[in-house]
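Backbone shape codes
____________________
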Amino acid sequence: MRPVDPADRRVANFHSAKFELFVYEDGMTLGDSVLQLDDQQPLGIGFHVYRMPPGMTSRPHRHNGSEQFLVLEGELVDNDGTVFKTGDLVWFRDGTEHSSNTPNGCLLVVHIAALETTVEWSLAFMGNKYS
């Protein structure tokens, strides 16, 4: 077996690597960022590490394919009040709609199958806790 060609391997440590600011399709930024080694996929699609800053609430969105994530650091609170803590492995079915917030910031390792679609929810649905 031959040694791996350096062009065929990328290595990054999420403690020291530079994360890229996530820019939504409409140009909006919320402060979340991504560390993704596969540049053959759009940023935030496939396997990546995702960082949400303290106090951030994700945009309400629909999954167009399944999503799985492992909470590495912090907590994530879903719009229905479910709290995901460090060590929790979470799966969302294709078509699931939700939004999440993180009071103190969080770091997730994520696999998203396809680009998510932003959905509009009323503040009444999300409740004042997430507005």
